[in-house]
Amino acid sequence: MELLVAQHVGFAYGQTPVLRDVNLVLRAGEVVALLGPNGSGKSTLIRSLLGQLPAQGSIAWDGKPIAKWSRRQLARQVAYMPQSPAWEPEQTVSDVLRLGRTPYLGAFGIESSRDLSVISEVADLLKLSDLLDRRLDTLSGGQRQRVILGRCLAQEPRAMLLDEPGTHLDLRHQVDLGNLLRSFARNRNLGVLMASHELNLAGQLADRLILLSQGAVVADGPPEQVLKPELLSSVYELPMRQISQDGQVYVMPVIDHVTTDSRPSA
Q1: Which candidate, 25, 161, 168, 230, has a CA 20 to 30 Å from the CA of 112?
Q2: Rg (CA), the chain
Q3: pTM of the model
Q4: Does any domain span residue 26?
C-alpha cells in the first residue's frame, strides 16, 4: 500500500534550487533510507513532504493532497523527528511522551485510558519506564533521542519521517534503533523514511535506498543497486570501493596514506 506519493517535487531558497524534480514513494511496511552528502536536500525534502515548506509538484498522503490535510489529521498519519529536536530542560520524559498524544486529545485536553496505555507501552518498548520522572536536562544525548522517538511512536502514526535519527547515538544504539524501526515496519505495517549519513548501516537495515545529489534523485532501489562505488564516488566526490561478504554489500572510502620520513635531518 502506498502511504506517500510525491511527484516532481521542487523547492528553492530564493534563487537557489534545493530540490529538483524529485519523485518518491513510501509504502506501508518498508524502511527507506534517504542518503546524500550535506547540502544534497535530505532535510528540505522531508520538510516538504510534511507540508512545512511550499514545495512545487504533487505530494499526497494516503491518496489525498497534502494541502487537504489539517495539521491534526496529518499528525495522526505521520510523525516527524527533526535532526535537532527542540526540548525544554524542565520537561520530564513523561511530559514529552504525552505530547505525542496531542492529536487525539479532546476539547479539554483530558487524557483517556487509551492515551495512558499507549504512553506506558512506548515507555516499556524504549526502556524509558524508569526515567519517566526525570527531567530532560539530566539525560544523555542518546537518552533524549530515544525520548523524542517515543513521542513520535506515541502518535501511533502510519508513517514516520526521521531526519538523521542516529544523531547522539553510539554504534550499538544506532543498530538497536534500526532494528526497532524494522520491527515496527514489519509488525505494525509502518512506513519509515529516514535521512542518514551511515551508508553501511542504512544498507543493512533499509529495504530501499534513495540517493540524492544536488537536490535530485540519482538512484532509488535496493541497497545492492545503490551502494555502487562508481555512483557513490561521483556523488560524494571521493574514491569508493565495495566489499561483499555473506550476501551483504559494504562500501568505504579509498584513503591515500601519505608516508613521511620522520628521521631528523642531518
Answers
A1: 161
A2: 20
A3: 0.90
A4: yes
